[in-house]
Amino acid sequence: MVIFDRDGTLTYEAADYHRDLTRVRSYPFAGPLLQRLQEQGYRLAVATNQSGIGRGFWTRDEVDRLHSRLAQAWGVPLSWHLCPHHPDDHCPCRKPLPALLQEALDRAGLPAAEALMVGDSPADAGAAAAAGVEFALVLTGKGRQTRSQLGPDVLVLETVADLEAQLA
What we know:
The protein is α/β, with parallel strands linked by helices. It is built from seven helices and six strands, in the order βαβααβαβαβαβα. α5 links the parallel β4 (about 115-120) and β5.
């Protein structure tokens, strides 16, 4: 199983929380990669903090519609797991806590040892470590800034497009 972060990993990151969700754009390599991984038998999931819901920028329904649009554009079924809470809520599902990843694993019926988390932030790396899942850092989004915060043993990918070669 491969669990992806959304913003900065599969889609372009926006400093303004993508106030207009119709403007969220996928990296051009995301869809083709996801399709190839699905064809190779990988289960695919997305674990994403979406505090814009808790901040009142958009509703859960609006985010769900965005996720449906992205999955349709990518041409793959995805298991979506999101934290809608404001960071000040100190909820148990916000990355770097492991709940979103554990939820994805539980839904797939897989142990942590059979999963890889791909993300661009310290929160993604922390969630992977807390869930006992391997982690790969992409240098898109916040990845270049995150790189210096992680140890030397982390798998580093220029983009998610480089993931396929690592899984072969």
